[in-house]
Amino acid sequence: MPDSRPLHILLAPAPRIVTDIFDEADLARLRALGSLAIHEDGPMTDDVFNAHAHADIIVGQFDMPAERLQRAKNLRAIINVEGNFLPNVDYPYCFGNGVRVLNVSPVFAEPVAELALGMAIDLARGVSRSDRRFRDGTEHYGLDANRDAFSLYRQDIGFVGMGDLGRAILPLLAPFGVRVRAYDPWLPSMWIESLGCEAASLETVLRMSKLVFVVASVTDDNQGLLDATAFAMMPKGAALVLVSRAGVVDFDAMLDFAAQGHIRVATDVFPSEPVPRSHRMRDIDRILLSPHQAGALAPALREIGKRTVADAELIARGLPPVMCKIAQPETVARFRSTPVAKS
Locate the D-isomer specific 2-hydroxyacid dehydrogenase NAD-binding domain: which residues (predicted)? Predict the structure, then answer.
């Protein structure tokens, strides 16, 4: 029988802001489940945590080592509203004691996919580069402006990773009639092929693609996966769109190959943010820079609240959550994402 007593929910979403992700109707739905405590006044100290250690659901991404989890006798779920599985939770304890760990990363797939396609078209056709030249009076016209341009139509496209984000990009590419090869060692070939892609090795993806989307999460296994050797495999003039995590690439090597004119690059993520004003990437012509804005749309942030509430209501009824991503014991400890710096 499900536990029918009122729930206590602790909402401590820093670095996100409550009003960015929850509207009043969503907060009312959380309050309807029992009691709701909101903490936005500074870090989660042990004193603050102890006052809410009886919580049934925690919404936030503060540290949850075993020492805190052991005090949280009623805890059923931790919902990370930042968007990553962070290495600050004792996951084995949670799995062994019936505590669900969830995150809201699916809300970002569509807005990031949309920007990724825009960046890909820009790299292929040189729109922003022509704009810069027009403004400084060095523009070319007609065919002269397109000497190194290429079309996405019927192009060979590669993916490094094929999770939520990769699957959101695929339908956007469908009108172009592209051939897609994908590398993802966490997925069987059958799954990749069911999406209309060819399962391929990393080397094949890099060597055979005119445009590569890097959409893999950073893990123990793939930190710096795309290094100088990998970039050298790419055809001269090929393009790379990086919209997942900077840790998947050797960032300095990527900049070197762009500066040499071997590849063109678009990136929405960086090893450290904000990027120093003096960083050399700002002066490399073949790089398109986006300040980690791909997923940061107001509707996406509000969807965080709606998915959180929907899963909290299911958990209150003794049912499994379905709207957020669920941590898997085989993989969650291998993720190496870093927290976002601000909401």
Answer: 117-294
